[in-house]
Amino acid sequence: MKNVTDSFVYPGHWPSAGSFGFNTDILATNPINLSVVIGVLIFFGKGVLSDLLDNRKLRIVNTIRNSEELRERAVEQLEKARARLRKVEMEADQFRANGYSEIERDKLNLINSTYKTLEQLENYKNETIHFEQQRAINQVRQRVFQQALQGALGTLNSCLSNELHLRTINANIGMFGAMKEITD
After folding, report:
1. Number of compact structural domains in the chain
2. How far from each other are the two terminal CA atoms of the chain, in whole angstroms?
3. Model confidence over 127-144: pLDDT tens digits?
């Protein structure tokens, strides 16, 4: 170690200014070179390194801020989306419940209208049957009346002679005359 410190202090060890050469003593030259390089780097590189570190620090801080802002916005959007989802789920439940009740109501209305229609058709059927029965009864009555009238006319025509016919007419005229006197 004495040689290293002597090389700094002892001027005879330094080469003269008139000669140029390489110093092969590694222990003597490396600490001097290193100290010069480190000194130059510290003196000139201190500002550059400080600026680089400050810029890097600012970029990191800005990135963190931006990330926090993005995270906050994402959390807000997530909360809004969850609120919308809850609202949509509630509306879907309402629609489902209303839909089921509306379907049941429509089903009951359809059943009721079908029963009413069936009742009306049954009434129309009964009215049609009754009408057709009355028409058939009337037709039968007319035929029976026509046949009875024809039979009576046939019997009267065959049984009545002119004399009997005149007596019947006179008797009827007498009855009408008596009725006329009573009403007068």
Report:
1. 1
2. 183
3. 999 999 999 999 999 999
